[in-house]
């Protein structure tokens, strides 16, 4: 069974007060049997001043729908105050690994 590799890019800025969440649909050639995601690259930081980092979280997942993979992303960047009150942003590239018929 063939393995397909695709990438999808998520870019965001000025996120404050909550975790960043997004999803994108990616078409793959053939009927998908299974799919997984992995973080290929990331560059996340505060939009303003320098801060001490308390939490950095990046989580991806894949849901299969026929010949399409829905890639979801959750990202969080929190400083040592414990609050999510400082604007953050970045770029995250996600690798999609799918097995097709």
Summarize the structure.
The protein is mainly beta and 101 residues long.
What can you see in these coordinates?
The protein has 101 residues and is mainly beta. It has a single domain, classed as Immunoglobulin-like (Sandwich), CATH 2.60.40. The protein has strands spanning 3-15, 20-27, 32-46, 53-65, 68-79, 88-100. It is elongated and about 50 Å long. 0% of the residues lie in helices and 73% in strands. It has a three-stranded antiparallel beta sheet with strand order 1-6-3, with no helix packed on it.
What proportion strand?
over 45%
Tell me the radius of gyration. Answer: 16 Å
Largest sheet: 3 strands, antiparallel
Beta strands, count: 6
For this structure, the CATH topology is Immunoglobulin-like
C-alpha geometry: elongated
What is the CA–CA distance across the termini? 6 Å
How many distinct helices? 0
What percent of residues adopt helix (DSSP H or I)? under 10%
Count of domains: 1
> For the residues shown, what is the average pLDDT?
91
Architecture, CATH level 2? Sandwich
- Helix and strand sequence: EEEEEE
What structural class do helix, strand and pairing data support? Answer: mainly beta
CATH class descriptor name: Mainly Beta
Biggest sheet: strand arrangement: 1-6-3
